[in-house]
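Quick question, first post here. What does this chain look like in 3D?
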Amino acid sequence: LTPVFQSRNKIKNQMLNDDFEEAEIYEAMSEKKPHFIFIADLPSFVKMIYSAKLDMKGFLETLIAKGRLHNIYFIAELALNKVSEVRGYQLFESFAEYRTGIHFGGKVMDNSLLSFEYMPYKEQAVIDKVGTGTLSNVTEQFRTQKVVVPLARK
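> Answer (accepted):
Ran it through. Tokens below.
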């Protein structure tokens, strides 16, 4: 990812210097091949990165902290009862700053990492069916609130 990130970062910085709007930068980056990195267990991944013999933490911290609008996406699973295992690591803190994601299981009011301010408080306490997730940070532009994972019970 290093050469991909570096080349896209040059484009993004040039566009920012030329006073392009974020929407225009997003459009330009959308023409680039997207990269999706799926992390099945964020606490294990963070611990591995910080204890690895290969020093990748600086690169990953930068990529996640400054990687907005690069068409590179990190998608990770994190059980709420394991947040304390990753708090304080810069990699996690940068990841959590985006405050975007999908909360599965309902009772979104228990999730302090994501924002569900768009939902009435009463709805925030509702438990969802298995496989149903609630999107955080829903805006007028993006009104979808729920995601359903088919066959989640299997």
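The mean pLDDT is 90.
DSSP finds seven helices and five strands in the chain.
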